[in-house]
User: Fold these one by one.
Assistant:
Number 1:
Amino acid sequence: MSAATAGLPAPENTPAEAPGVAGIGVRRALYVDNPIYAEAAYGPNHPLAIARTQSVRELCRINGWLPAHASCVSEPADPRDLSRFHSRDYIRALRAADEAGRASRAVRERYAVGTMENPVFRGVFRRAASTVGGSITAARLALDGRVVYHPAGGTHHGRPDRASGFCYFNDPVFAIATLLDAGIGHVLYADLDAHHGDGVEDAWRDDPRVALFSIHEAARWPHTGPIESAERERICNVPVPRGCNDTEYAYVLDELLEPLVERTKPEAVVITCGADALHGDPLSTMALSNVALWQAVERIAAYADSVVVLGGGGYNPWTVARCWSGLWARLSGQPIADTLPAAAVHVLGELESDLVDEDERDPAWLDTITDEPRTGAIRPEIETLVQQCRGQQPGQGARIVQPAINGDRTHP
């Protein structure tokens, strides 16, 4: 079903007849962005107080990967849209905290806003709403058989009534809902972030139209997504041990994702591609190359005609910028040179991080996009994990209940 037949117009600056950029297969690739992501956010001493999406866009521009007709500027989601998943009192509280520039103790305790984890900063409400708006736009555009990339998305920890894990709203929930609203019968949500996407799973785990796959690091915040929680044939959680390498990652996808796709037959996919699963990220101990993540996304994107690719976590500015810019090049079918232009080297050289010491910075992060593969043996604990995951998928039908998204779009 196209965006036009679903009554979902494309944004004004991205006409339906725009040629786009050839991406996965013969589909057109589009890049969704908003100027607000270039603004300072989160304040000092926060893991996300680093240049992320702005560096990605700049690297794409310098390398000639982002022609004007492939880029789309989205609008923030309005409170009516937000209230389909988030409570009206929480929406009001976040907006009021933004306007006041602070959160009261009551707001901090009730909504987890104004904490060190989820600070109040100038424009926090508009930025969070823009993330949701971008993912709604991405899903609408994907209905025309496109691959749509929204690297500022992937705020998968957001809860209906509070902020959580640096996430104020939950944009992947809205991307999935938009696809279902348009008549898509089955959606696959694949989460490649090092941290389990608890907010998305809780939103959709009881809806038989949505299959959920997550490969994340075991014993890592938010300490959810154990094998035991995947009791239905359309939910697969894979908590991998420390040091997961490229070979092990591909093995997990072969053994667990392929059967899930065969069972659920998705018509659309939403992917959260957190860059914190990469070697060198300060908030995880997974050890992937960016090539492994690119290949995983390409593989998942091939399962359906309508594809939304989001960002997610990632706290090393060099590995994030290289991974997500390279991912766009791969999705849009453009070559990645071994040698970067001087301007791109300058962008990487200007990045800073208090979480990555200078002696831990790989020189390759400063002048290349593509990592060397990080292959290795498949450890016995990975093989055991796969066997355990298979044992938790009995192939029984899912219980049909009301979906988590509320069709009532009452303005808060």
Number 2:
Amino acid sequence: MSSVLRLVNVWKFYGYGDKRMAVLKNINFKVEAGELVVVMGPSGSGKSTLLSIASTLDKPSMGSVYIGDVNVTELNEEELTALRSRKLGFVFQTYNLIRNFTALENVMAPMILSGLYAVDEARSRALELLSLVGLREHYNKFPSQLSGGQQQRVAIARALANDPEIVFMDEPTGNLDTRSSAKVISLVKWLNEVYGQTFLIVTHNLELTEIATRVVYIRDGILYENPPRDLLSSKLSEELTRIRKSDLMKNAQLNLLKTRAQSLRRLMIEGILPRNEAEKEVVRIKQAIRRLQKTA
């Protein structure tokens, strides 16, 4: 198999000076033709930034990105636009369909813009693509007349319009209910197995890992071939230690307890809280203070 996508020593930074933060850290990664690769990661892990850079929508701070044999980091915006329209497909979480275009017109649009097809050719292809995703009978409907799952399938048909080398998908089931998600996931799997379409999908939806030919994981801007469970455990331990040692958090907790004690005193004076209940609350407050003192 040949590489459709390669990322070589890719870094991405945001901010400057002391506030500079590495969002992607020395990423080396490739997708072969015919693969269905899923990138798993929680919010803030860098997976959306990875997809943006891999799909040429953003540039790395350091390193190179190749689509086939083309180093896209060396292309200008006009060249990138031409490459995207002819070699790449995109499916977004929020569908990004043109509201005043029908399903048919949405699928036709990238073909017309690419200059590869005449209008009648684009129409014929668009109808076939809508048939492929099970929506030919809805060809004349606007996005507002379609369900979320149907809109996402139109978006998939649009992504396939110019026979892309790879389709990039950003949380494709993020806005869908269970039934619609199942339809979209099944369609993606079928397109990969039967149609031979290459996909790179970023998600936190575990169900998508079931259809993948390969799953990679990203956390804190670092890509892993296996789930970084040990790293997560370590990070949790470090965070708990930091919280326990934080004077700011201890002071906040003490202030909360102080406010609670003042509230108890007022409720007792006003006769709102029975004495026995107040005494129980006082015991809880004392226990909490002792626990805080032990972490000092």
